[in-house]
Amino acid sequence: MILFLFLSTHLTFSQVTLSLKNGTLGNIIQTIKTQTEYKFFYDDELTKLKVGDINEKNIPVKELLNKVLPPIGVTYKIDSQIIYLYPNKKEIKSTPKEKDSKQIIKGQVTDASGEPLIGVSVSVKGSTSGTMTDMDGNYTLIVPEGYKDIQFSYVGFKTEQHAIKGDKINIQMQEDTHTLDEVVVTALGIKKEKKMLGYSVQEIKGDKLNQTGDPSITGALQGKVAGLQMTTSNTGLNGSTKITIRGNSSLVDNNQPLWIVDGVPFTEESTSTASAYSGYDRGSTTVDINPEDIESISVLKGPNAAALYGSRAGNGVILITTKKGTKSNGFGVTYNNNFTWTQVASTLEMQDKYGQGTNGIYSDTPYSFGPELDGHEYTTFTGENIPFQKYGNKLKDFFDTGFAQTHNVAIGNVKEDSNYRASFGSTNANGIFSREKMNKINVDLTAGMKMNKYLSMDSKISLSRTKTENRPLYGKNGIVYQLLFIPNNIRLSDLKDHYMSPEKAHINWTGPFEEVLNPYFIENQYSNNDERWRAFGYYTAKLNFTDWLHGSAKYAFDYYNTTFKTTDITKCLDVTTLDEQKQDRLDRSESRFFEQNAEFMLLGNNNIGDRIQIGYSLGSNIMIQQRTGLDAFSVNMRKKLVWQMNSALGVNGANASYMKKQINSVFGTFQFTFDNYLTLDLTARNDWSSTLPSNNRSFFYPSANLSFVVSDFIRNQNWALPAWLTFAKVRLSAAQVGKDTDPYQLCNWLNYKQNGNTGDLTSPDTSIRANATLKPEISTSYEGGLELKFLQNRLGIDFTYYNSRTKNQVLIVPMTGSFNGKYINAGLVSNKGVELMLYGTPVKTKDFSFDLTINMAHNLSEVVELTPEKKEVIFNEGESNFIIDVGAREGGKLGDIYPIQSYKRDNNGNIIIRDGYPLIEESKGNDRKAIGNIQPKLLMSVTPSFAYKGIYLTALFDMKFGGDIVSMSESVATNYGMAKRTENRGTITVKGVNEDGTPNTTAVDAESYYKRIANVAEEFLYDASFIKLKELSLGYSFPKTLLKKTPFNSLKVAFVTRNLCYLMSHTPGTSPEGGYDTTMFSQAFDFTSIPYTRTLGFSVNVGF
Question: Where is the TonB-dependent receptor plug domain (predicted)?
Answer without folding.
Answer: 196-317
